[in-house]
Amino acid sequence: MDSLSPSGWPCGCAGEERPVTDRIITGHTRIVGLLGGDVRFSLSLRLHNEAFTSLGLDWVYLPLPVKPHDPRSLAEAVRGMRAMGFVGANVTMPFKEAIIPLLDEITPAAQRIGAVNTVRIGKSGRLIGGNTDSVGFISDLSANEVSLTGRPVVILGAGGAARAVAFGLAERRCGPMLIANRTSQRADRLQAELATHFPSQKVTVTPWPLRADNLAPGALIVNCTPVGMRGVRTPTGADSPWPIRFTPDQVVVDLVYSPLVTPMLAAARADGARALTGLGMLVQQAALSFAWWTDEAPPVRQMRAALEEA
Ligand SMILES: NC(=O)c1ccc[n+]([C@@H]2O[C@H](COP(=O)([O-])OP(=O)(O)OC[C@H]3O[C@@H](n4cnc5c(N)ncnc54)[C@H](OP(=O)(O)O)[C@@H]3O)[C@@H](O)[C@H]2O)c1
Fold first, then answer.
1. Pair (55, 123) in one structural domain
2. Which of the listed residues 27, 99, 138, 166 has the most CB atoms within 10 Å of its CB?
3. DSSP letter string over 63-123?
């Protein structure tokens, strides 16, 4: 293959008809990619490939879809990346927790969070798992001057992204934390792990149907589920995970970024709440992953511009 053509990519990739890179692939091109169940709509493809282009790096970032319901597929994919000399990968839904036992080493932060979103493969083939979601999320809140100390928070979801968000917020000494997840055992597990690492952090688990009950004023509400994402259908047909009106003192963050303004964010804006899209976190976590793989300073401005054009 001499170059990547638009027709070589699965249809529906970020940017739709536009190719995510027009660079020539050489025999020396270094390869990273995105491991996930459905990576067709991920903007990471555009983000990282634009970053490589802007720094003149002979690197490429590829979509690496893996069958989510076949437990062997992820292990085979990880072995394949090592065998083919990949430099690393991002990991997305639903594999951020499942990939951990397949790796040789986990950074202390990812170990504590219990989720890996970035893998680096050393020259010896050693696979190291890290987490850039947590710092990426908090950096975006800081960039948007959202004060966290003492602020009550509601976390919707208890998967890989929710874990990163919860640990990041607890580290920043947020106020009482409410976690609501469709599967309550998963939320209970996260609560227990937070209690081990942050004994003074108040964490309550609430059943999913009661997620909006008894909210403290001024809450930060973070959607860490895929509800609202393009192509995701819920059994009830709901396209927002938040069942009631918002209030103007609330700050609402939706990690889903496809579409950019999700039904939840549109409702938050209409009700006068502060609404932040998932793009800020996407850029921040990507910049950290980029630096970890390449040992280069990430071109953050170009990465953000690439997303705004996508
Ligand atoms: N903006 C960013 O940079 C960024 C970064 C990371 C993730 N994300 C987004 O965050 C979302 C979650 O990613 P993840 O890696 O945490 O996935 P994950 O580990 O698979 O977790 C998914 C979570 O969503 C819940 N969920 C799934 N379908 C649901 C439904 N129909 N109703 C209610 N809850 C539902 C799951 O509940 P159960 O436990 O009951 O299955 C679980 O808590 C994805 O949309 C992803 O794209 C964005």
1. yes
2. 166
3. EEE--TT-HHHHHHHHHHHHHTT--EEEE-TT-TTTTGGGSSEE-HHHHHHT---EEEE-T
Active site residue 123: no
Under 8 Å between Cβ of 187 and 163: no
- Nearest atom, ligand 1, residue 157 CA: 43
Rounded to the nearest angstrom, the distance between the alpha carbon of 181 and the centre of ligand 1 is: 10
**Each residue's pLDDT tens digit, 230-264:** 989 899 989 999 999 999 999 999 999 999 999 99
Give domain status of residue 304, yes or no.
Answer: no
Segment 86-96, tens digit of pLDDT: 999 999 999 99
DSSP H stretches of helix in the chain: 44-55, 71-83, 108-113, 133-143, 160-171, 184-197, 263-270, 279-294, 300-309
- Which of the listed residues 114, 131, 148 is the one where a domain comes to its end? 131
Instruction: Dig out the tokens for 86 from the structure.
Output: 């990949």
Which residue range forms the structural domain that includes residue 173?
Answer: 134-280
Give how many domains the chain has, as a whole number: 2
Q: Pick the catalytic residue: 67, 96, 123, 202?
A: 96
* One domain, residues 126 and 139: no
Residues 20 and 116 in one domain: yes
* Residue nearest atom 26 of ligand 1, based on CA coordinates: 225
